[in-house]
Amino acid sequence: MYDFAYHRPKSLADAVNGLKGKPDGKAMAGGMTLIPTLKQRLARPSDVVDLGDLKDLVGVKAEGAGVTIGAMTKHADVASSPDVKSAIPALAYLASHIGDPAVRNRGTLGGSVANNDPAADYPAAVLALNATITTNTRKIAADDFFKGLFETALGEGELITSITFPKAEKAAYMKFPNPASRYAMVGVFVAKTAAGVRVAVTGAGPSVFRVKAMEDALAKNFSSEAIKDIKIPSDDLNSDIHGSAEYRAHLVNVMARRAVDAASK
Description:
Elements (H helix, E strand, L loop, with lengths): L4 E3 L4 H8 L5 E4 L5 H6 L7 E4 L9 E4 L2 E5 L4 H6 L1 H6 L1 H8 L4 H4 L4 H7 L6 H7 L3 E4 L3 E3 H4 E3 L2 E2 L7 E7 L3 E8 L6 E10 L2 E7 L6 E2 L1 H9 L24 H19 L2
Parallel strand pairs: 1-3, 2-3
Antiparallel strand pairs: 4-5, 5-10, 6-7, 6-10, 8-9, 11-12, 12-13, 13-14
């Protein structure tokens, strides 16, 4: 681990100021990604700004059209929240299957979404539910947030403060996890809301993405039968020791059909 300056601000304003003028500074939420990369000397930040004391960014608030979840809310708390379970059961289910108990009791919603790991679970929910990401400076639509491998629309010193998820008429998340890490080799979140049907895929590509062909088919007939013959091109998908691009392409269809079946119950 390389040397760095450690800061633990007591307010959001102090956290933002702690990152200002430090292009190599890093904000740390739960630390589930940053700490391992520091230990392995894969990251060399000049400063680490620990957001652990920002209690204003913790909690779930039920609203008429959905739920707003603070960025520093832990996965385990999202999974057990009565408000999340009532408004969007699929989101609570997703949170309950992130990593293992240790990860779920340390990792945070905002940290996961800001990191945009290609195999993270939350980005699929954010994109499929067309959530709104609120930062210390603006609101960002889900379709505009995820830009690529570990890349988002967040600017220098910009921090997620909360994410608002609209209620879904029908929704479900299904993933094929790596048996060791529990990361999604492929995860598919299907949601039918007042705005229409959206299908978001994580784990398969460099970043979360939508499948328009499935969305169009499900808008006409919300059944797994409607998408069973839709093929996912493997050209731009991930390929590694855990599974080829072709295998992941196949899994997208399998997980999508399972999600639709689960959402229809």
